[in-house]
């Protein structure tokens, strides 16, 4: 299998290999332009950025890389933000939002002293395209037909939505969980390796996974998706919501546990949340940005004639608006992580915030 030659374009290679590489680059420009954009960003990144390939996903004669970029503090006790995009290959806007933030961050590193000072207090790890095979094929699942968000070893505690909550019938149907006896898919194992290397022992860490889905409003989802009872760190989520609303009172996000919509098997972030918080004295909050695609469809109904139109803004000015809209949210998360000691609830506040969170999100749950 031929590997993509990324970030090192000046190596001397045989003519036959150069022809194959040229063909592969043309295919990427056509089917996976986000990868080309990412490789250009990483190739031009300043020395303060470290980059690596966590794994490669085989697809025909390609080996598509899962890139990782790290910037910020190297201290083992520094708070961490993990940004993830492209878990669902159809939801390209998720990767594009992460890439928009990464491009902005790399540009600011060249001139913004205050941004550099912030990065001395926090570490950012970015996985912009977790499912490159699915994005290349323009499908929700990975090349094996597995929905990566239904693939973790965790089972819903109550009845889940038919098919939507995860099914084991066939990879030809959507929301296929995969074979539990085979373990998680390679893409999820790559993500798990990053999480287990990066997060344990940190006083505070936060993940933001960027998706799009049917809805009229942008939503911030948090665990759980496998049960309707509140997570143990629900007071910290409420505290984060409150400082966001105090700083940005005119925001347009709806904060909710995913269980308010439906239960699922195999939710990736439920699994990582339970694994990290079980053995860690610190706080780990995994969040999902679920961009409401019905907004874009309502304004341009003919998007429904294209598969990508279900999940992505196709009109250029709306696409640009989405890319810039969420930069404020990600920058807020950076500041919140760096200053987590100032807003995470102390013991005397935690019970009060937990009670408020239960009344706000769970009082109508069965």
UniProtKB/TrEMBL annotation:
SMART domains referenced in this protein's UniProt entry, alphabetically: Zn_pept
UniProt keyword list: Carboxypeptidase, Hydrolase, Metalloprotease, Protease, Zinc
Molecular function, one GO term: metallocarboxypeptidase activity
InterPro entries with a match to the protein in the record: Peptidase_M14
A single BP term in Gene Ontology: proteolysis
GO cellular component: extracellular space
Needed co-factor(s): Zn(2+)
Keyword Protease: yes
Residues covered by the Peptidase M14 domain: 35-303
PANTHER family documented for this protein: PROTEASE FAMILY M14 CARBOXYPEPTIDASE A,B, SLL0236 PROTEIN
Protein family membership: Belongs to the peptidase M14 family.
Full protein name: Zinc carboxypeptidase-related protein
Organism: Marinobacter nitratireducens
């Amino acid at each position: 299998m031929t590997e993509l030659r990324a970030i090192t374009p000046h190596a001397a290679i045989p003519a036959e290999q150069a022809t194959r590489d040229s063909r592969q680059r043309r295919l990427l420009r056509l089917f996976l332009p986000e990868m080309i954009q990412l490789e250009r960003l990483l190739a031009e990144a300043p020395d303060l950025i470290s980059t690596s390939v966590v794994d490669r996903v085989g697809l025909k004669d390609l080996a598509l890389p899962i890139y990782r970029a790290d910037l910020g503090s190297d201290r083992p006790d520094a708070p961490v933000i993990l940004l993830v995009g492209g878990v669902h290959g159809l939801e390209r806007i998720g990767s594009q939002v992460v890439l928009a933030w990464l491009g902005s961050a790399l540009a600011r590193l060249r001139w913004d002293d205050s941004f550099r000072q912030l990065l001395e207090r926090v570490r950012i790890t970015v996985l912009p395209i977790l499912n490159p095979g699915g994005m290349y094929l323009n499908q929700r699942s990975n090349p094996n037909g597995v929905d990566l968000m239904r693939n973790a070893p965790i089972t819903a505690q109550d009845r889940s939505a038919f098919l939507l909550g995860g099914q084991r019938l066939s990879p030809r149907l959507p929301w296929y969980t995969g074979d539990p006896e085979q373990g998680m898919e390679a893409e999820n194992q790559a993500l798990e390796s990053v999480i287990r290397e990066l997060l344990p022992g940190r006083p505070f860490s936060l993940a933001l996974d960027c998706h799009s889905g049917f809805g009229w409003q942008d939503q911030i989802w948090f665990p759980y998706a496998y049960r309707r009872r509140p997570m143990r760190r629900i007071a910290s989520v409420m505290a984060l919501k409150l400082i966001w609303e105090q700083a940005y009172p005119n925001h347009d996000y709806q904060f909710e546990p995913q269980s308010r919509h439906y239960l699922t098997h195999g939710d990736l972030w439920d699994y990582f949340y339970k694994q990290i918080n079980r053995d860690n004295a610190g706080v780990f909050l995994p969040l999902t940005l679920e961009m409401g695609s019905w907004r874009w469809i309502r304004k341009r109904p003919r998007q429904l004639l294209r598969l990508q139109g279900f999940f992505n803004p196709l009109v250029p000015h709306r696409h640009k608006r989405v890319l810039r809209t969420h930069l404020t949210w990600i920058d807020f998360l950076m500041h919140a992580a760096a200053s987590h000691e100032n807003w995470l609830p102390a013991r005397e506040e935690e019970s009060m915030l937990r009670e408020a969170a239960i009344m706000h999100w769970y009082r109508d749950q069965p």
